[in-house]
Amino acid sequence: MRREMISMTRVALALVALAVPARAQVKLTGAGATFPNIIYQDWVLTYNQRTRGVQLNYQSIGSGGGIRQFSENTVDFGGSDAPMTDSAIAAVSGNVLHIPTVLGGLAVIYHLPGVSARVRFTPQVVADIFLGKLTSWNDPRIAAVNPNMQLPRSDILVVHRSDGSGTTYVFTDYLSKVSPEWQRRVGKGTSVNWPVGLGGRGNEGVAATVAQTPGAVGYVELGYADANQLQYGPVQNRAGQFVTPTVESVTAAAAGAMAELGPNTDFRVSITNPTGADAYPIASFTWLLVRKQYTDAAKASALVPFVWWALTDGQAVAAKLGYAPLPQALRPWIEARLKSITAGGKVIWPGPK
Amino acid sequence: MATGVGAAPATGADAARRMTRGTNPADRTYQAVLTGLALLLPALLLALIVELAVNARPTIERFGWGFVFNSTWDPVADVYGAGPLIFGTLASSFVALLLAVPLAFSVAIFLSEFAPRWLKRPLGFLVELLAAVPSVVYGLWGIFVLIPFLRALVVPPLKAVFGWLPFFQGVFYGNSMLAGGIILAIMVVPYIAAVSREVLNAVPSSQREAALALGATRWEAVWMAVLPYGRAGLVGAVMLGLGRALGETMAVTMVIGNRHDISLSLLQPGYTMAAAIANEFSEATTSLYLSALFEVGLVLFVITVLVNAAARLLVWRTAPGRAVGSRAL
Predict the structure, then answer these.
(1) Contacts of A208 in chain B (CB under 8 A)
(2) Is the Cβ of A191 closer than 8 Å to some Cβ of chain B?
(3) Domain residue ranges of chain B, discontinuous segments joined by +
(4) Is A156 on the interface with B (CB under 8 A)?
């Protein structure tokens, strides 16, 4: 809800900004993922104000829609919470770069009245709950991870997203990595065939249902869990540590994953279940989709500096808006990608000044 | 025809047409423009069907009739079956009508037959106001008021008494077919009540007076003379409500649980076609997935058309062309 409010204000301000007449302007349109919408609107607004001659506009229509619009050339850049598949990339003849912008973490939320300490989760427990194999909170397998806690006898009710979403993609991607059974029976995707549970519409729907139902467990973006003051617990990472989701532990997940990626990565990677002792395991990049070759040089030379600005100066607002900033070490890799963008065969961005 | 509601205006229009036919070029142009506009709507409908069918073709070819009967909905494996969606749409609408029709008819009968004059207007207005509430508000109310209420005060006694019925099996978590049906019922009551009231108001007083003169009580007069006279219109009112229930999306998806499952138990979550389309369309990433949602839309469309056709047949058979309200359908 809080995010909704902020984004409404931003949109309103953006409309005011649009109403001010301006001189010859490059208009850039983007569309896609809803998860990063708040920070994208913030970036767009700030950048439009500080940069003459560029008018950016981002519409949060969903990752699937973003990829479709990008592929059909109706927008200048796209946004997606799930990377494009190989076949989708082939459909645009490989003319796409995935640029990570910020990170999001998912909290495993639950509603257990009377339980004040945080319930700890192992990957196995999370997977078994969502597979429907763990059906009661006082199951010995949960108690084994939470030795000093008195958990109630209530049934576990799984709540998942009913709408297709990047959040679901990240969560099922994590479960596929930690549970072979999940991978075999369910798999990963923006919507999946859930073995158990009920669906809530949007992060707010899942949050509301969990908050209303004793014994419920679900997953939402960290910002929603905090804004709605929902209970959530630490999850055990690959190093065996129980890590609570925070902006820092989510950034640490990306830093941990970088070691495995290498500088030549196409960034189309999942960073769930990364290495690193302080890395929170259920986290993901969200990406901007830009083209490797643009036909319109004016547009390309306006877009690339914006992207670079967003990934450097723009990162400062991330934590305040509920997102985790990219690790600094990622910058040179992204810089190299942005430098490789061409328009009409010419390089359009020489690098940061 | 003397008793039909729309009889008088229709005759007037006929007379006007006879008098001005072919006389004035302005009138002819006017008529041509209106004809064009009137034909535009059916054309739009046709275009809609064609568009849905064309986009649904990949799944129609892939799954055939299995799409309608299968219950697996697995976007990861690209396997789609809309059985639970179709079942959920029909079941939630049925539950809604079961609850809404007696209530709406009672309201209509009270307003047209029994209510004191000073109460008629404000009460009628308030009932109709229910129709003006946005569906997302009903959804929120469902999550924060209705579901906790059901969980605390309705379902436990219901299970204690009727727990042996297949309709009340399993653990009740809140979001369920029952909650969806109740929300839908509240949403369709104003439509059914408003139309029924108009139908009953249009029943000539001679019907009531005749029944009363024969010694009927006021209740008997309503039951034996007024209701049968208006039954075509009343069926129409119910069908209007049903059409609304079949297509309702937002409020339903917020409380029904959104689970692709067929369960006879009202306490279990379900899903409807309209809700699935709204939920999954924006992130439908593969072309087959998109096509499956288009086919769901096509099926919903066909079901709605069938329901309307059935309503017409029902009206024509029960009251061939004479009773109150039949012209309205």
Answers:
(1) 143-144
(2) yes
(3) 75-318
(4) no
Contacts with A37 from chain B: Cβ below 8 Å? none
Whether ipTM > 0.85 holds is: no
Q: Angle, nearest 10°, between helix axes B287-318 and B273-280?
A: 150
Residue in B173, B279, B282 closest to A157 by CB: B173
> How far is Cα A121 from Cα A95, in angstroms, rounded to an integer?
41
pLDDT for A147-189, tens place per residue?
Answer: 988 899 999 999 999 988 888 999 999 999 999 999 999 999 8
Letter string b/e over residues B249-260, b meaning 16 or more CB atoms within 10 A of that residue's CB: bbbbbbbbbbbb
Question: Is beta strand A77-80 parallel, antiparallel or unpaired with respect to A242-243?
Answer: unpaired
Distance of CA A125 to the CA centre of its chain: 23
Residue B103 near residue B237 (C-beta atoms within 8 A): no
Decide which of 1.10.3720.10, 3.40.190.10, 3.30.70.640, 3.40.640.10 is the CATH code for B75-318: 1.10.3720.10
Cut 0.90: pTM above it: no
CATH architecture of the region A25-104+282-347: 3-Layer(aba) Sandwich (3.40)
Contact check, Cβ <8 Å, B75/A166: no
Taking the CA of residue B313 as centre, how many other CA atoms within 13 Å lie in the half-sphere pointing to its CB? 6
Burial class (CB in 10 A: 0-12, 13-18, 19+), B272: buried
| Residue B152 to residue B315: CA distance in whole angstroms | 42
- Chain B residue with Cα closest to A31: B282
- Does domain A105-258 fall into CATH 3.40.190.10? yes
Domain ranges of chain A: 25-104+282-347, 105-258
Instruction: Show the CA angle centred on residue A306, arms to residues A300 and A311, nearest 5°.
Output: 130
Residues 6 or more apart in contact with residue B62 via CB below 8 angstroms: B288
Same fold, A25-104+282-347 and A105-258: yes
Q: Does any CB of chain B come closer than 8 Å to the CB of residue A154? A: no
- Convert the pLDDT of each residue in A95-112 to its tens digit: 999 999 999 999 999 999
Rounded-to-integer distance, Cα B127 and Cα A296, Å: 58
- pLDDT value at residue A263: 80
Q: Which of B266, B222, B294, B251 is nearest to B94 (CA)?
A: B266
Rg (CA), chain A: 21
A245 close to A221: Cβ distance less than 8 angstroms: no
Measured from the Cβ of residue B291, the count of other Cβ atoms closer than 10 Å reads: 22
Contact between A198 and B280 using a beta-carbon 8 Å cutoff = no
Contact of A343 with A296, CB cutoff 8 Å: yes
Question: What residues in chain B have their Cβ under 8 A from chain A's Cβ atoms?
Answer: 72-77, 143-144, 147-148, 171, 173-175, 253-254, 257-260, 269, 271, 275, 278-285
